[in-house]
Design brief:
This protein is mainly β. It is 12% helix and 33% strand. It contains 3 helices and 18 strands. A hairpin with a 4-residue loop joins β10 and β11. α1 packs across α3. The protein is elongated. The chain starts with a strand and ends with a helix. InterPro entries: Ig-like_fold (IPR013783), Ig_E-set (IPR014756), NXPH/NXPE (IPR026845).
Length: 252
């Protein structure tokens, strides 16, 4: 006899971040059934150039976004496929007219300590997203959805990635071989302007890498440094290329 998956007790949640989430429903809403599976599309993601939004109330809000289970039969069994629909809404509760939100969704069970990712997700481009799952275990199942970035922030991040290949900041930490005195200099994939530099480029894979030459006596380029990221400087670089509104959207 097939095992029955108890989806009627599913706890619907929408999570804004891994540390902060808000519950958006206690019951499953019936839908019109499964849509046709797309051909050769495991995940379709739509990028949008949001030039029309002018304030933070227009961006996707996790607390107001809704999740519902679209099902075509009362009793679901292990091995059946279910469709979960997310409908994105802004901070005023209005339905979004475009897609592009960065979302994550999964089925989980506290009883069996199990979880499963969707078979595939479709961004419908109109503010709705369809996630398709195969039921893997019997009993109570929970739907967890997370809004990682609203679509407005995604468009800003995508623009920064395309226009700022050197948006990350790195430092080289040199140590004197005898005195252990340290000196920190900047590193990049481009040659430092008007400064002497150490060339650590790898000709085997055509990977350029340059660090400003240390000025401390006794520290040379062959005293290989420890490379680390400079988060504060990277944020400053990104901040200089984004408007105050865009920076606020990225933070959310």
């Amino acid at each position: 006899m097939p095992q029955v998956a108890d989806v009627q007790k599913t706890n619907l949640q929408l999570m804004k971040t891994t540390a902060n989430y808000s519950k958006i429903g206690d019951h499953i809403q019936a839908g019109e059934g499964l849509t046709q599976k797309p051909d050769s599309r495991f995940y379709r993601y739509n990028l949008h150039d949001h030039t029309s939004w002018t304030n933070l109330t227009q961006i996707t809000d996790a607390k107001r976004t809704t999740v519902r289970l679209m099902k075509s039969k009362v009793e679901l069994k292990v091995g059946d496929q279910i469709q979960v629909r997310l409908e994105a809404r802004d901070k005023m509760g209005n339905t979004k007219a475009y897609g592009g939100d960065f979302i994550r969704i999964k089925l989980s069970s506290d009883e069996t300590r199990s979880y499963v990712n969707p078979d595939y997700i479709i961004d419908n481009g109109n503010g709705t997203y369809d996630a398709f799952f195969t039921l893997r275990w019997p009993g109570s199942t929970q739907i967890d959805a997370m809004l990682v970035h609203p679509s407005e922030a995604v468009s800003v991040i995508n623009r920064l990635i395309q226009n700022m290949p050197n948006r990350l900041a790195y430092d080289a930490k040199y140590t004197h071989p005898k005195t252990n005195q340290e000196e920190i200099t900047r590193c990049d994939v481009v040659v430092p302007s008007q400064k002497e530099y150490c060339n650590y480029s790898d000709p085997r894979n055509f990977a350029p890498w340059y660090c400003e030459k240390p000025t401390t006596p006794g520290i040379k380029c062959n005293n290989l440094p420890r490379i680390c990221t400079n988060v504060a400087r990277a944020r400053k670089i990104v901040g200089q290329n984004a408007t105050p509104l865009e920076r606020e959207a990225i933070k959310r």
